């Protein structure tokens, strides 16, 4: 009995504990449920009321203001400006085609614009605003606003657009922006959500494209209430984004404008480098184009005009154009021979007008030859035979190594489109490229900058800067980002004996300042401004034996595309070099007659910081120089906007 009684009491206690635990759990659950119900019914009542009314909250992106681009003096060269635009919302407009037809009675829209708008409308949700046209005149926008009752779904807005105040002067440097395309999106693995915004603009070429992530900034957000159909009811809150970074370039807008004007309508390119820091002071490609047309949406006629000319205005010849450097390359061959110890400055080579290799003759540009020439005279008079001779002795591998040391055949990492690497060929390259052995004739051609050798105007300017300074000067295009100075391109001392560099500088000095120099007519007579340089003329066609026997055709007697390229490289002042310059005029003819005079004007503009005075030129050339410079269509840099942020 006692045992049964004890078991009953134990069972009763267990049941009591379970009841207590279950009761406590139920009380806790009821408390949590009550708190949650209070949260739903009181704290979040407004939010769930929206849901009950079939409304929802959407997060929409706010495009950030794009970063501003400045020149080295603080002048704005790419800015944002307010512009009026007209947008359409398909669900409010009904039939988009009819809506656009009504709009065209008020605003002049071409068929291309209408078709593009219809394509955008079909691609996006019916409640997404699509831009029909931007950069509208106030009168047009006002007309749309007044006629709003008969234009459902079509509204005027104030937007933001890119503007390039210097137009063609910076087209190849800064580039331009344009709406995001399917091709742009296909190149990105994880595209920024900003790029999904209809007609959002991104950099397409130049600095705008290469520094896109910096310039674009970070998107802001706004929380909006929309109904089930997607219509906006109200804005709940907004978080502003981060504007893009401002970039200051190394280029001087006044010099850039002068260079572009001086090149004129020639198919040409010019580069000016600051020797001390490697800053690109000017980098021009001609002919140019107005990048603002691409921002607005270039017409078919305008685009065909740009692509239908052999002068290739859309190509940035300064960094994309790879040309045989011609006789400007002789400084490379000479330095390679001096460094290898195969010649001394006093050694002479006999030039009878050609060098015979087997059954073939390699001709000098001077048919009768130069006689005995030493190093300085060979540069001064640009004797080809001298370089045929020393080229064989030093060998192509040493020449190619020196070319790369001076910046040719090397990719210079500038934020510009399609920067070419050029070519400093050697034995290994030809074997890998063609599966053939290098020939002695290849060396002879390469020693005078012909054959396989290719260089861009940028590389030729770097070569001049390195010879002038004795340092591995590296070109720099971005001076600062949001006010933070970027690394200098001054470079370390070159692994070249200073005495050998001095001998090349002496030879380049004599090219311009000796009476027998090929560029003597382009000398500078102003005290402390003397220029040293090297002329170059590169062939683009083969000259047959029959033509040589009858007399080589003059460039002016040939079709434009068969004429020689004209080149000139320089540094100045001779005694304390500050700037290095390179000029290439496509199919311009002789370097001394065509490229050197342009280089002199540009060099003097860079040194003086203004249009060169007449006294910098020889007395018999002053009238002509002043007339030429006065006729240039120059822009006053003071008329450009400066400082601050241009935000719409």
TrEMBL record:
Entry keyword annotation includes Ribosomal protein: no
Family: Belongs to the class-D beta-lactamase family.
Protein name per its UniProtKB record: Beta-lactamase
SUPFAM superfamilies: beta-lactamase/transpeptidase-like (SSF56601), Penicillin binding protein dimerisation domain (SSF56519)
Annotated ranges, domain Penicillin-binding protein transpeptidase: 269-602
Annotated stretches, region: Disordered: 627-648
Domain Penicillin-binding protein dimerisation: from-to ranges: 62-236
Membrane topology value: Single-pass membrane protein
One MF annotation (Gene Ontology) recorded for this entry: serine-type D-Ala-D-Ala carboxypeptidase activity
Catalysis: reaction(s): a beta-lactam + H2O = a substituted beta-amino acid
């Amino acid at each position: 009995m006692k045992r049964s009684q004890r078991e009953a009491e134990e069972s009763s206690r267990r049941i009591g504990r379970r009841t207590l635990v279950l009761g406590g759990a139920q009380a806790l659950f009821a408390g949590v449920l009550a708190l949650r119900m209070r949260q739903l019914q009181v704290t979040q009542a407004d939010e769930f009321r929206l849901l009950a009314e079939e409304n929802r909250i959407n997060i929409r992106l706010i495009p950030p203001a794009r970063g501003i681009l400045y020149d080295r003096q603080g002048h704005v060269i790419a800015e944002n400006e307010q512009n009026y635009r007209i947008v359409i919302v398909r669900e409010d407009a009904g039939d988009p085609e009819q809506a656009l037809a009504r709009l065209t009675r008020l605003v002049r829209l071409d068929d291309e614009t209408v078709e593009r708008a219809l394509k955008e409308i079909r691609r996006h949700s019916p409640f997404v605003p699509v831009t029909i046209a931007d950069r509208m005149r106030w009168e047009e926008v006002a007309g749309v606003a007044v006629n709003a009752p008969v234009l459902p779904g079509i509204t005027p807005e104030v937007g933001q657009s890119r503007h390039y105040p210097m137009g063609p002067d910076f087209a190849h440097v800064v580039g331009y922006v344009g709406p995001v395309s399917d091709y742009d999106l296909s190149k990105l693995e994880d595209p920024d959500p900003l790029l999904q915004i209809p007609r959002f603009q991104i950099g397409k070429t130049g600095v705008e494209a290469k520094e896109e992530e910096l310039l674009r900034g970070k998107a802001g957000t706004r929380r909006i209430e929309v109904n089930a159909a997607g219509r906006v009811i109200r804005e709940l809150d907004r978080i502003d984004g981060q504007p893009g970074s401002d970039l200051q370039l190394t280029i001087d807008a006044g010099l850039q404008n002068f260079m572009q004007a001086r090149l004129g309508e020639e198919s040409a390119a010019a580069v000016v480098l600051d020797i001390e820091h490697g800053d690109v002071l000017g980098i021009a490609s001609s002919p140019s184009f107005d990048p603002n047309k691409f921002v607005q949406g270039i017409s078919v006629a305008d685009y065909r005009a740009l692509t239908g000319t052999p002068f290739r205005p859309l190509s940035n010849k300064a960094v994309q154009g790879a040309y045989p450097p011609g006789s400007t390359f002789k400084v490379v061959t000479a330095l390679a021979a001096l460094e290898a110890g195969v010649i001394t400055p006093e050694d002479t080579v006999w030039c009878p007008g050609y060098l015979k290799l087997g059954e073939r003759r390699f001709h000098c540009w001077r048919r009768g030859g130069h006689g005995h020439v030493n190093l300085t005279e060979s540069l001064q008079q640009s004797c080809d035979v001298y370089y045929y001779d020393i080229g064989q002795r030093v060998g192509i591998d040493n020449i190619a190594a020196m070319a790369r040391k001076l910046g040719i055949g090397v990719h210079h990492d500038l934020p510009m489109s399609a920067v070419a690497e050029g070519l400093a060929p050697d034995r290994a390259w030809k074997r890998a490229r063609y599966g053939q052995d290098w020939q002695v004739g290849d060396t002879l051609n390469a020693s005078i900058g012909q054959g396989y050798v290719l260089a861009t105007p940028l590389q030729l300017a770097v070569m001049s800067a390195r010879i002038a300074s004795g340092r591995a000067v590296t070109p720099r295009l971005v001076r600062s980002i949001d006010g933070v100075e970027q690394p200098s391109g001054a470079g370390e001392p070159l692994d070249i004996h200073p005495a050998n560099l001095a001998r090349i500088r002496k030879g380049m000095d004599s090219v311009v300042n000796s009476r027998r120099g090929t560029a003597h007519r382009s000398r500078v007579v102003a005290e402390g401004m003397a220029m040293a340089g090297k002329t170059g003329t590169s062939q683009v066609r083969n000259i047959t034996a029959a033509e040589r026997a009858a007399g080589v055709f003059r460039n002016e007697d040939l079709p434009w595309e068969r004429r020689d390229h004209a080149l000139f490289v320089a540094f100045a002042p001779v005694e304390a070099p500050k700037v290095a310059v390179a000029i290439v005029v496509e199919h311009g003819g002789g370097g001394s007659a065509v490229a050197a005079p342009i280089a002199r004007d540009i060099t003097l503009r860079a040194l003086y910081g203004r249009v060169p005075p007449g006294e910098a030129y020889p007395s018999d050339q002053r009238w002509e120089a002043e007339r030429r410079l006065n006729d240039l269509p120059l822009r006053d840099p003071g008329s450009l906007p400066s400082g601050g942020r241009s935000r719409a």
